[in-house]
Amino acid sequence: MNHPNLPPAAFPVACVVRHGQTAHAGAHSHACGQLIYPQLGGVLLETVNSLIRLAPDRAAWIPEGVSHGIAIDRSFRYYSLYISRDLLRRDETCVLPVRPLMRELILDASQWASESSDVATAKALVLVDEIQRAQSIDSAIRIPDDPRIENICRTLEQNPGSAKTIDDWADEAGVSSKTLQRYFVSATGMSFQQWRNRVRMAKAVELHAAGLRIIDVAMTVGYSTEGAYAQAFRKFYGYPPSRLRLDGASITRPRPQP
């Protein structure tokens, strides 16, 4: 593909690596595009109309001028790459799958300032190609293509509040629960319970954004009490749902700790 000429005055990619136990950044924007990638832990990213959980298998691209905030309540290490619009123009906020090459380039970007201009430029152009070619993905859970569990996953995605246990699903499939558990781990890298929990938590964020009460969200995603749901939500996101201030259909940044 054709690339624009790189500005001669300054290298068009800056990398900042942040790490710690907690981090909070209120609504802000940048004069250039930003790629956020959590190498360790998770990042709760908020834009005007969405709340997105980033994990080490995905990154978020935020165009210049787009307001966003970040909240992290657990150990983390994440990379922020600030990329000049002269080098990369992608105008929609999106979540991108992080393939091995993109991941290695992101992690290497913190060293580019000490490398020769030619080497750093070559790497930057490859990274830009990776970002531009990457297909944006829904922040919700993706369905694995393993036919042995695909129907189960689709059913759970449509009805995350289903009370069926892995034993119930195993009986329907005519296999043992241990065998079904192995299928899940092989196809998703997660146990059945972990995969179902991710589906429930993704749905929960969607319901909170729609303005539902906490108890209604809890019942919809399979919890019999608000307390049990709040505990699960906090364990997954690092925040209890009560810290999300609802404003119509949007979730604004979490309330500060007292």
TrEMBL record:
Keyword Transcription (UniProt): yes
The superkingdom of the source organism is: Bacteria
Q: Is Calcium a UniProt keyword of this protein?
A: no
Residue stretches making up the HTH araC/xylS-type domain: 150-247
Return any one Pfam family short name. HTH_18
Q: Which PROSITE patterns match?
A: HTH_ARAC_FAMILY_2 (PS01124)
Q: Which GO terms describe its molecular function?
A: DNA-binding transcription factor activity; sequence-specific DNA binding
Keywords per UniProt: Transcription, Transcription regulation
Q: What is this protein called?
A: AraC family transcriptional regulator
